[in-house]
Specification:
It is a single chain. With about 280 residues, the protein is mostly helical. It has helices at about 10-25, 30-35, 45-50, 55-65, 70-85, 90-100, 105-110, 110-120, 125-130, 140-145, 155-165, 190-210, 230-250, and strands at about 170, 175-180. Strand 1 and strand 2 form a beta hairpin. The longest helix has 23 residues, at about 230-250. It is globular, with a radius of gyration of 24 Å. The chain starts with 9 loop residues before the first helix and ends in a 26-residue tail after the last helix.
Length: about 280
């Protein structure tokens, strides 16, 4: 069986642990576990695995004891439970960052930390796009200046290091930094966790961009009443538009000389079902 550090979902870990124990100990059952852990419900473990019950702090301790987790494994299991069960994005990010502190987890999820780092900072993709410009300079001060000095030289160097480790930036035969023209494939954990932080940063930057000259930006807004079917159609239209933008920009043409950010937001202003 895989170690606990190979899991991002504690329910999957419990499911595999139960199967492993059933294979090695024929007497093991949900009822046996309930008796050992002191639960009156003989199916409590199954309900947890099926996502119908959550674990409390006391239950985390009982589960760790019955499954004979070591001190470090117990702490990881505790973080995993909180990470999976919390509904607050900020806390979920906090737990995930603590999970990433475990070298065993990083080893089992290669590059996930770097992917999370890339996706959770607005200026990482911006620097990658800057490298496409013929005027690009591998100079922290130049790069920070191009990004309106919204980041420090130290942050520029950290971004270049991360982009290089992921393989999005490479060096040519002359040692010059250039984009690798490689697609970044990320794990679901890194992608979903970073999305919250990334979009939060971009919304703040969009607010600041209101001060730019009108010819340097394009802002528009609509408030509308829609049905669920229309909402689905609108999302499809947004997805199609994004694909069209990518297709246009990948066809080549004039040499790029600036980096822009395109954001599209569609969100609810009212409770679903007219407030009911």
């Amino acid at each position: 069986m895989k170690t606990i550090y190979a899991y991002s979902n504690y329910r999957e870990f419990l499911k595999d642990m139960v199967q492993e124990l059933k294979n090695s100990q024929p007497s093991f059952s949900y009822r046996y576990f309930a008796k050992k852990a002191g639960y009156t419900s003989p199916n409590f473990l199954k309900l947890v695995i099926d996502g119908k019950r959550n674990l409390s702090e006391e239950s985390i301790r009982k589960f760790a004891e019955v499954f004979k987790l070591g001190k470090k494994e117990k702490r990881f299991f505790e973080l995993l439970v909180h990470y999976n069960q919390t509904i607050h994005p900020e806390r979920r990010q906090q737990y995930y960052q603590e999970i990433l502190d475990f070298a065993e987890y990083r080893s089992a999820h290669e590059l996930e930390k770097e992917q999370y780092e890339y996706l959770s900072h607005w200026y990482y993709p911006a620097i990658l796009e800057l490298s496409h410009l013929s005027s690009f300079q591998e100079n922290p001060e130049w790069i920070a200046g191009q990004l309106q000095n919204k980041i420090s030289n130290k942050e520029v160097l950290a971004a270049i290091d991360c982009l290089s480790r992921i393989g999005l930036l490479v060096r040519d035969e002359n040692g010059k930094l250039k984009p690798a023209h490689k697609a970044l494939t990320t794990g679901e954990e890194a992608r979903s966790l970073a999305a919250f932080s990334y979009h939060e940063q971009l919304l703040e930057m969009a607010n600041q961009a209101l001060k730019q000259k009108a010819e340097e930006r394009e802002f528009a807004a609509m408030t509308m009443a829609v049905s669920e079917a229309e909402m689905k159609k609108l999302k499809e239209m947004i997805h199609d538009f994004r694909k069209k933008v990518v297709n246009v920009l990948t066809q080549g043409g004039a040499e790029p000389n600036s980096v822009y950010q395109l954001n599209m937001q569609l969100f609810s202003l009212t409770k679903k079902g007219n407030g009911e």
